[in-house]
Amino acid sequence: MATSPTNNQIAGLLEHIADLLEAQDENPFRIRAYRQGAQTIREHEKPIAELIHQGKFDQIRELPNIGGGLAAVIGEYVSDERSSLLDDLEAKVSPADVFERVPGIGAELAQRIVEQLDIRSLEELEEAAHDGRLAEVEGFGKRRIEAVEQSLAGMLSRSARRQQRERRKGSQPTQQDRPSVKLLLKLDAEYRQRAEADKLPKIAPRRFNPSNEAWLPILRTERDGWTFTVLYSNTARAHELDKTRDWVVIYYERDDKERQNTVVTETQGDLKGKRVVRGRERETREFYQARQA
Questions:
Q1: I need a labelling partner for 234 at 20 to 30 A (CA). Which of 64, 207, 254, 261 fits?
Q2: What is the pTM (predicted TM-score) of this model?
Q3: Phi first, then psi: what are they for 45, rounded to 5°?
Q4: Other beta carbons within 10 Å of 158
């Protein structure tokens, strides 16, 4: 993470943990505790990360629905940029398992979502349904997406649903809301070229790296008012498919809004062999068509 996590990001972590616990059929009281804790953090007026950095753990533990256990999870996430609990849960439960619990999404569609959109949580799934990315996944027509949105409205917490309503008040993402496909593909090409030439600093990811080797090249840059962090995917799925040197994850942020896209080499269809921005296939296709015109 380039900066300290926002309250929304911390709440998102707790919601994601709750999703994974639910997929494991964990104790419903424990699941509810994480969802209620997420709501508390999201609605808190002060930045929780600041309290962590100032060592004010007592103030965090005293918040409604936040006890010692949740405070420890939050503290680790802010201080170490990771969550050991989340790592353990993700090793046991895949994102596809989480999505499969949503009515209207079976095992095949759930796996397709993970592979094409590289998202992990129900909140990210809801956002993908809203901003058009889910429509790019084969098998998701208008009626199915509407059914998924209705199901998620009942599954997400009250605070997450309010976030959903606030997003719906705005327009669909435009060029001003996210970088262009042209820029993302340019960064993808630059990153892979410099990584291949060993001209980028390397970090030692905590996941899938028992020897703590610094093998993962990372590119940080600013373009067109956006701050970018670019690196190869280190997800379980990327390792499973041997795509850790193909899938490139591009994180971007501006005005406290942080999102991501994954760029891959397409293996089928009219874009086969080309670099494609997952979830934005239509724009990618238009980009290549314009280049050929």
A1: 254
A2: 0.52
A3: -75, -25
A4: 11
pLDDT digits (tens, 9 = 90+) for 199-221: 999 888 777 778 878 899 999 99
Average pLDDT over residues 138-145: 88
**How many CA atoms within 13 Å lie on the side-chain side of 206?**
11
What's the CA angle centered on 233, arms 227 and 235, to 5 degrees? 125
Planar angle of CA 180, 184, 189, nearest 5 degrees: 145
Radius of gyration from C-alpha coordinates of the chain: 19
Q: Are 181 and 288 in contact (CB under 8 A)?
A: no
Query: Tokens representing 251?
Result: 């994180």
| Lowest pLDDT segment from 82-91, 163-172, 181-190 | 163-172
The pLDDT of residue 232 is 92
Instruction: Specify which residues 263 forms β-bridges with.
Output: 248, 277
Percent of the chain past pLDDT 70, that is, above it, reads 90
* Among the listed residues 185, 198, 193, the one whose alpha carbon sits nearest the alpha carbon of residue 286: 185
